[in-house]
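User: Structure please.
Assistant: Input sequence and predicted structure:
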Amino acid sequence: MKKLVFGALTTVAMAFAMPAMAANFVAGEDYTVVANPGKTVAPKGKIEVREFFWYGCPHCFKLEPHMQTWLKQIPKDVYFLRTPAAMNPVWEQGARGYFVSEALGVRKKTHIPLFHTIHDGRQQIFDQASQAKFFARYGVPEQKFNSMFNSFPITAKVAESNKLAQQYQLTGVPAVVVAGKYVVRGEDAKVTQVIDFLLEKERKGK
């Protein structure tokens, strides 16, 4: 009987200890501290969380469901932004397409479908022509899409994406930057756990 009681108490103790252990994330292992923190664009009183991604990245695709779950219960003091990485010519094409979809107001209804079309549908929607055809399915005239693709406003956004990537010393995606100070990498549920840990760290710091 004593063994059973002891075993039960040990199990309960472990159950309580596991969340505490999971929350004990370490700089250099679970996240990176940015050498030169960037100025964020979050409104006063909010903490910026910025996700860098590329639609063709399988790791970004795996992370997306976890980010979607997290976004459904996003804290009120968090300001979330997506930034398509443009660190090479292929990624830049995707970034331009993303920014055009955002400018035309269709991003919300095309974001997840585009991920699935590329990874589940095995379609390489990476260049301007293939993206124009994809977005046409969602009511964006190809001519309109093409006229904006290399426009000055879109080019400016691509330049800003690259500037931020350099500032945060990003070498790949996905990468989630919290408060302009910390970079979280990964493709599983641990990413959002670390984000929450860093958000709490930032709140306490204030």
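Residues 103 and 112 are 17 Å apart (CA to CA).
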